[in-house]
Specification:
Length: 417
């Protein structure tokens, strides 16, 4: 082989060797950097079993959340903001959410109400009716739960959605019994009961509906029996929901064997004072004597609060012209009345249905824009239950799955009959 060719070959081999060496150095550096980043990532991660996921902060560091609900709440609150900085821990998240909860809730409520033909923002009493912020008359039509201790499963978002979308209901009433078995003041689980109330308020709010928190006295006929508990309860509720525009307080369901002036009115003034310390504007419903039938007792003796209404309850097969005349008399004398509980059977809740009386009641309420609520959202084997006893569904009921009373009220709430 000529010497010239040997020298050329050696030069080529040397050049290739240099290129390979450089490539090797580059690859080595890349591997080293990758390993460092991997080790840094591993060292920066929590290893506890509660870890639910990671989220990159604006700084590029990984943040992990041990509470999936807290993270979901943060994510929802910052939806659409790609530059939002995730909170470092649960405490920070809860603090942020607590400080913004009223504002966020009202944003949700406003959005839902803007998309709902039934919701009308904050209501106030105007003469004998409810009005919205623009002065338009509003008639609330909806459904009451049964006792929250007994049928809590019907307090769910989809049940309320069914009432809103299929029944056109714009209000739900949460019946919190006080004295009966499992009641708030008779050994019931207050933590669970309060949580059920809270769930109901949130579901109604998310759906753009009004919600009545009902202190459901019944066998404890005198509201003063649990006056201290009532003041404490409504103080807490009104503080929690002071920023909400859709919460209505019903402070004594059905007083009886007592006197309006000596018993009910002084009780109501004390409880209303507790509410007004936190919420100056909420509508408040006050029960009247004889299971909330004697609404005419209020004439000339109203409570000194412009945003108070007075409850009248009827069961159409028992309560006919005599009670209807009380409603007419109260309205004629300027008393704002809210029918916060009603049914079309007899007063036991489990007797025959009187459709003629029911239709007469409905015409009277509609003619005077009186808001009304139907008893009750459950499948209990009684006439007034709105769902058939053989139906186990908790939402999405067809007309065939409703009781006779349920089908009548569905039509009534939708504006029929």
């Amino acid at each position: 082989m000529p010497a010239e060719l040997c020298a050329c070959g050696r030069e080529i081999i040397m050049k290739k060797g240099i290129i390979c060496l450089i490539a090797g150095i580059v690859i080595g550096i890349a591997l080293a950097v990758g390993a460092m980043l991997f080790i840094r990532n591993i060292n920066g991660r929590k290893t506890d079993k509660g870890t639910m996921g990671t989220m990159t902060r604006g700084t590029g560091d990984a943040v992990e959340y041990t509470d999936a609900e807290v993270y979901a709440a943060w994510r929802t609150q910052n939806a659409g903001d790609r530059h939002a900085t995730a909170p470092d821990n649960k405490a920070e998240t809860q603090g942020t959410l607590a400080s913004e909860s009223a504002q966020s809730t009202q944003q949700i409520l406003k959005q839902q109400q803007n998309g709902s033909k039934n919701a009308s923002g904050r209501l106030h009493v105007s003469g004998t009716v409810l009005s919205d912020e623009s002065g338009n008359t509003v008639q609330l039509r909806g459904v009451s739960t049964h006792g929250l201790a007994w049928f809590p499963e019907y307090v769910n978002r989809e049940a309320f959605r069914t009432l809103r979308d299929d029944w056109n209901a714009n209000v739900v009433r949460l019946a919190l019994y006080t004295e009966e078995y499992g009641g708030y003041c008779s050994g019931g689980d207050r933590t669970k009961l309060n949580q059920t109330v809270a769930d109901g308020v949130e579901y109604a709010t998310e759906l753009g509906m009004y919600v009545i928190i009902d202190w459901h006295i019944l066998s404890d006929n005198n509201p003063n029996s649990h006056k201290a508990d009532a003041i404490e309860f409504f103080s807490e509720m009104s503080a929690r929901y002071s920023g909400y525009t859709n919460v209505i307080y019903e402070i004594c369901n059905e007083p009886h064997y007592v006197n309006w002036n000596n018993d009910i009115k002084p009780y109501a003034q004390a409880v209303i004072g507790a509410i007004r310390a936190n919420d100056k504007n909420a509508v408040i419903i006050v029960g009247t004597n004889t299971w909330s039938q004697d609404v005419d007792d209020v004439i000339g003796n109203r409570i000194d609060d412009d945003n108070v209404m007075y409850a009248l309850h009827f069961y159409a097969a028992t309560h006919k012209d005599y009670i209807r005349d009380k409603l007419k008399k109260a309205i004629d004398n300027g008393i704002p009345v809210f029918v916060s509980e009603s049914s079309i059977c007899d007063a036991s809740g489990n007797g025959g249905i009187d459709y003629d009386s029911a239709n007469t009641w409905l015409r009277l309420m509609n003619d005077n824009n009186v808001s009304f609520v139907a008893w009750s959202l459950c499948n209990k084997n009684e006439t007034s239950a709105l769902i058939r006893p053989d139906c186990s569904k908790k939402s999405g009921w067809t007309a065939e799955e409703l009781s006779d009373a349920g089908r009548w009220y569905r039509e009534a709430v939708r504006g029929g009959h």
